Protein backbone atom coordinates (compact mmCIF):
# COMPACT_ATOMS: atom_id res chain seq x y z
CA UNK A 1 0.00 0.00 0.00
CA UNK A 2 1.49 3.40 -0.95
CA UNK A 3 2.35 5.67 1.95
CA UNK A 4 -0.12 8.48 2.54
CA UNK A 5 1.11 12.04 2.70
CA UNK A 6 1.07 13.43 6.21
CA UNK A 7 0.40 16.94 4.93
CA UNK A 8 -3.14 18.23 5.01
CA UNK A 9 -4.72 19.80 1.92
CA UNK A 10 -6.22 22.53 4.10
CA UNK A 11 -3.19 24.88 4.10
CA UNK A 12 -3.00 24.65 0.30
CA UNK A 13 -6.74 25.26 0.01
CA UNK A 14 -6.50 28.30 2.27
CA UNK A 15 -3.54 29.70 0.34
CA UNK A 16 -5.35 29.44 -2.99
CA UNK A 17 -8.60 30.73 -1.52
CA UNK A 18 -6.85 33.76 -0.03
CA UNK A 19 -5.13 34.54 -3.32
CA UNK A 20 -8.30 34.35 -5.43
CA UNK A 21 -10.39 36.07 -2.76
CA UNK A 22 -8.04 39.05 -2.60
CA UNK A 23 -7.92 39.18 -6.42
CA UNK A 24 -11.71 39.52 -6.46
CA UNK A 25 -11.88 41.93 -3.53
CA UNK A 26 -9.24 44.21 -5.08
CA UNK A 27 -10.91 44.06 -8.53
CA UNK A 28 -7.99 42.28 -10.17
CA UNK A 29 -10.73 39.83 -11.10
CA UNK A 30 -13.66 42.15 -11.74
CA UNK A 31 -17.41 41.49 -11.77
CA UNK A 32 -18.43 39.45 -14.79
CA UNK A 33 -14.97 38.06 -15.40
CA UNK A 34 -14.97 34.32 -16.07
CA UNK A 35 -12.43 31.64 -15.19
CA UNK A 36 -12.53 27.86 -14.96
CA UNK A 37 -11.49 25.08 -12.63
CA UNK A 38 -8.75 24.28 -15.12
CA UNK A 39 -7.49 27.86 -14.85
CA UNK A 40 -7.17 27.40 -11.08
CA UNK A 41 -5.46 24.05 -11.51
CA UNK A 42 -2.87 25.47 -13.89
CA UNK A 43 -2.26 28.72 -12.03
CA UNK A 44 -1.73 27.13 -8.62
CA UNK A 45 -0.65 23.61 -9.65
CA UNK A 46 -3.52 22.06 -7.70
CA UNK A 47 -5.89 19.15 -8.23
CA UNK A 48 -9.44 19.61 -9.48
CA UNK A 49 -10.63 18.49 -6.04
CA UNK A 50 -8.90 21.44 -4.37
CA UNK A 51 -10.06 23.76 -7.16
CA UNK A 52 -13.68 22.70 -6.57
CA UNK A 53 -13.33 23.38 -2.84
CA UNK A 54 -12.03 26.86 -3.61
CA UNK A 55 -14.95 27.46 -5.97
CA UNK A 56 -17.47 26.30 -3.34
CA UNK A 57 -15.93 28.53 -0.67
CA UNK A 58 -16.14 31.54 -2.99
CA UNK A 59 -19.74 30.68 -3.92
CA UNK A 60 -20.73 30.43 -0.26
CA UNK A 61 -19.54 33.99 0.25
CA UNK A 62 -21.36 35.34 -2.80
CA UNK A 63 -18.16 36.20 -4.64
CA UNK A 64 -18.77 33.96 -7.65
CA UNK A 65 -21.43 31.95 -9.42
CA UNK A 66 -20.72 28.81 -11.39
CA UNK A 67 -22.26 26.77 -14.16
CA UNK A 68 -20.99 23.92 -16.31
CA UNK A 69 -21.72 25.83 -19.49
CA UNK A 70 -20.09 29.15 -18.57
CA UNK A 71 -17.57 28.38 -15.85
CA UNK A 72 -16.93 30.48 -12.74
CA UNK A 73 -18.14 34.08 -12.95
CA UNK A 74 -17.16 36.85 -10.54
CA UNK A 75 -20.34 38.19 -8.94
CA UNK A 76 -21.21 41.89 -8.51
CA UNK A 77 -20.38 43.47 -5.16
CA UNK A 78 -24.08 43.62 -4.30
CA UNK A 79 -24.01 39.82 -3.91
CA UNK A 80 -21.03 39.63 -1.56
CA UNK A 81 -21.47 38.52 2.06
CA UNK A 82 -19.82 41.55 3.61
CA UNK A 83 -20.20 40.27 7.18
CA UNK A 84 -18.21 37.13 6.40
CA UNK A 85 -14.94 37.25 8.39
CA UNK A 86 -12.88 36.10 5.41
CA UNK A 87 -14.21 38.86 3.17
CA UNK A 88 -13.53 41.40 5.89
CA UNK A 89 -9.98 40.08 6.31
CA UNK A 90 -9.35 40.13 2.57
CA UNK A 91 -10.60 43.73 2.34
CA UNK A 92 -8.31 44.70 5.20
CA UNK A 93 -5.36 43.04 3.46
CA UNK A 94 -6.06 44.70 0.10
CA UNK A 95 -4.41 48.14 -0.12
CA UNK A 96 -7.26 49.48 -2.24
CA UNK A 97 -9.95 48.32 0.20
CA UNK A 98 -8.40 48.71 3.66
CA UNK A 99 -9.48 52.27 4.44
CA UNK A 100 -13.02 51.68 3.17
CA UNK A 101 -13.35 48.51 5.25
CA UNK A 102 -12.01 50.18 8.39
CA UNK A 103 -14.46 53.03 7.84
CA UNK A 104 -17.38 50.61 7.43
CA UNK A 105 -16.41 48.70 10.57
CA UNK A 106 -16.06 51.93 12.53
CA UNK A 107 -19.52 53.04 11.38
CA UNK A 108 -20.84 49.69 12.58
CA UNK A 109 -19.17 50.32 15.93
CA UNK A 110 -20.79 53.75 16.08
CA UNK A 111 -24.20 52.19 15.54
CA UNK A 112 -23.70 49.43 18.12
CA UNK A 113 -21.25 50.33 20.88
CA UNK A 114 -22.95 53.40 22.39
CA UNK A 115 -26.17 51.42 22.80
CA UNK A 116 -24.22 48.45 24.14
CA UNK A 117 -22.49 50.73 26.65
CA UNK A 118 -25.85 52.15 27.72
CA UNK A 119 -27.25 48.66 28.26
CA UNK A 120 -24.07 47.51 30.02
CA UNK A 121 -24.45 50.36 32.51
CA UNK A 122 -27.87 48.96 33.38
CA UNK A 123 -27.23 45.22 33.10
CA UNK A 124 -23.55 44.40 33.72
CA UNK A 125 -22.71 42.14 36.63
CA UNK A 126 -20.53 43.48 39.47
CA UNK A 127 -17.69 41.31 38.17
CA UNK A 128 -18.00 42.75 34.67
CA UNK A 129 -18.05 46.32 36.00
CA UNK A 130 -14.93 45.69 38.06
CA UNK A 131 -13.12 44.00 35.17
CA UNK A 132 -13.87 46.91 32.84
CA UNK A 133 -12.31 49.30 35.33
CA UNK A 134 -9.24 47.06 35.64
CA UNK A 135 -8.84 46.89 31.87
CA UNK A 136 -9.31 50.64 31.41
CA UNK A 137 -6.58 51.38 33.92
CA UNK A 138 -4.31 48.78 32.34
CA UNK A 139 -4.80 50.44 28.95
CA UNK A 140 -4.05 53.83 30.47
CA UNK A 141 -0.84 52.55 32.06
CA UNK A 142 0.32 50.78 28.89
CA UNK A 143 -0.29 53.97 26.93
CA UNK A 144 1.77 55.96 29.41
CA UNK A 145 4.57 53.40 28.99
CA UNK A 146 4.43 53.85 25.20
CA UNK A 147 3.19 50.30 24.70
CA UNK A 148 0.08 51.17 22.73
CA UNK A 149 1.28 49.22 19.70
CA UNK A 150 2.01 45.98 21.58
CA UNK A 151 0.08 42.72 21.60
CA UNK A 152 -0.55 43.18 25.32
CA UNK A 153 -2.30 46.49 24.67
CA UNK A 154 -4.24 44.93 21.79
CA UNK A 155 -5.43 42.04 23.95
CA UNK A 156 -6.61 44.37 26.72
CA UNK A 157 -8.34 46.69 24.24
CA UNK A 158 -10.16 43.79 22.54
CA UNK A 159 -11.24 42.38 25.90
CA UNK A 160 -12.45 45.80 27.05
CA UNK A 161 -14.67 46.48 24.06
CA UNK A 162 -15.77 42.85 23.81
CA UNK A 163 -16.80 42.83 27.46
CA UNK A 164 -19.03 45.85 26.89
CA UNK A 165 -20.82 43.98 24.10
CA UNK A 166 -21.14 40.92 26.34
CA UNK A 167 -22.39 42.95 29.30
CA UNK A 168 -25.16 44.45 27.16
CA UNK A 169 -26.80 41.00 27.30
CA UNK A 170 -27.75 41.28 23.65
CA UNK A 171 -26.61 38.10 21.95
CA UNK A 172 -26.52 39.80 18.55
CA UNK A 173 -24.20 42.52 19.85
CA UNK A 174 -22.02 39.90 21.53
CA UNK A 175 -21.82 38.00 18.24
CA UNK A 176 -20.11 40.99 16.65
CA UNK A 177 -17.07 40.88 18.93
CA UNK A 178 -14.88 39.20 16.34
CA UNK A 179 -15.69 41.81 13.71
CA UNK A 180 -15.06 44.68 16.13
CA UNK A 181 -11.73 43.15 17.11
CA UNK A 182 -10.63 43.20 13.48
CA UNK A 183 -10.54 47.00 13.58
CA UNK A 184 -8.11 47.02 16.49
CA UNK A 185 -6.08 44.07 15.20
CA UNK A 186 -5.59 45.67 11.80
CA UNK A 187 -4.49 48.98 13.32
CA UNK A 188 -1.85 47.16 15.36
CA UNK A 189 -0.64 44.62 12.80
CA UNK A 190 -0.45 47.21 10.01
CA UNK A 191 1.63 49.59 12.14
CA UNK A 192 -1.16 52.18 12.37
CA UNK A 193 -1.46 52.10 16.15
CA UNK A 194 0.90 54.57 17.87
CA UNK A 195 3.07 53.51 20.78
CA UNK A 196 1.66 56.46 22.71
CA UNK A 197 -2.09 56.74 22.04
CA UNK A 198 -3.63 60.12 21.34
CA UNK A 199 -3.76 62.22 24.53
CA UNK A 200 -7.12 61.81 26.17
CA UNK A 201 -8.00 58.56 24.40
CA UNK A 202 -7.12 56.39 27.37
CA UNK A 203 -8.83 58.85 29.72
CA UNK A 204 -12.01 58.20 27.76
CA UNK A 205 -11.68 54.46 28.35
CA UNK A 206 -11.39 55.09 32.08
CA UNK A 207 -14.42 57.41 31.95
CA UNK A 208 -16.41 54.78 30.07
CA UNK A 209 -15.54 52.03 32.52
CA UNK A 210 -16.41 54.26 35.47
CA UNK A 211 -19.73 55.30 33.92
CA UNK A 212 -20.70 51.66 33.42
CA UNK A 213 -19.53 50.76 36.92
CA UNK A 214 -21.69 53.54 38.39
CA UNK A 215 -24.71 52.67 36.24
CA UNK A 216 -24.64 56.03 34.43
CA UNK A 217 -26.21 54.90 31.17
CA UNK A 218 -26.38 58.27 29.37
CA UNK A 219 -22.78 59.07 30.23
CA UNK A 220 -21.61 55.62 29.13
CA UNK A 221 -23.28 56.01 25.74
CA UNK A 222 -21.86 59.50 25.25
CA UNK A 223 -18.30 58.47 26.11
CA UNK A 224 -18.49 55.36 23.90
CA UNK A 225 -19.53 57.60 21.02
CA UNK A 226 -16.65 59.98 21.75
CA UNK A 227 -14.13 57.12 21.71
CA UNK A 228 -15.26 56.02 18.25
CA UNK A 229 -15.23 59.60 16.95
CA UNK A 230 -11.66 59.91 18.21
CA UNK A 231 -10.73 56.79 16.20
CA UNK A 232 -12.33 58.33 13.11
CA UNK A 233 -10.31 61.51 13.58
CA UNK A 234 -7.01 59.84 14.42
CA UNK A 235 -6.99 57.39 11.52
CA UNK A 236 -8.68 59.61 8.96
CA UNK A 237 -11.70 57.34 8.56
UniProtKB/TrEMBL annotation:
GO terms for molecular function: DNA binding; DNA-binding transcription factor activity. The keyword Transcription regulation applies. PROSITE patterns: HTH_GNTR. Coiled coil: none annotated. Keywords: DNA-binding, Transcription, Transcription regulation. Residues 10-77 form the HTH gntR-type domain. The keyword Ribosomal protein does not apply. Gene3D superfamilies: GntR ligand-binding domain-like (1.20.120.530), Winged helix-like DNA-binding domain superfamily/Winged helix DNA-binding domain (1.10.10.10). This is FadR family transcriptional regulator. It comes from Corynebacterium uropygiale.
Amino acid sequence: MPAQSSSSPTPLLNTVLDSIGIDIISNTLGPGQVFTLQDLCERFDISRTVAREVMRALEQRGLVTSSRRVGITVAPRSEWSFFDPLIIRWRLEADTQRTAQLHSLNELRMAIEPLAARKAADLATPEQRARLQELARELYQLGEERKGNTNRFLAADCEFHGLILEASRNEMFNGLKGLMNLVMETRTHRGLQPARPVPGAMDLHVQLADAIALGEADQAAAVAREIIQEVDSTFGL
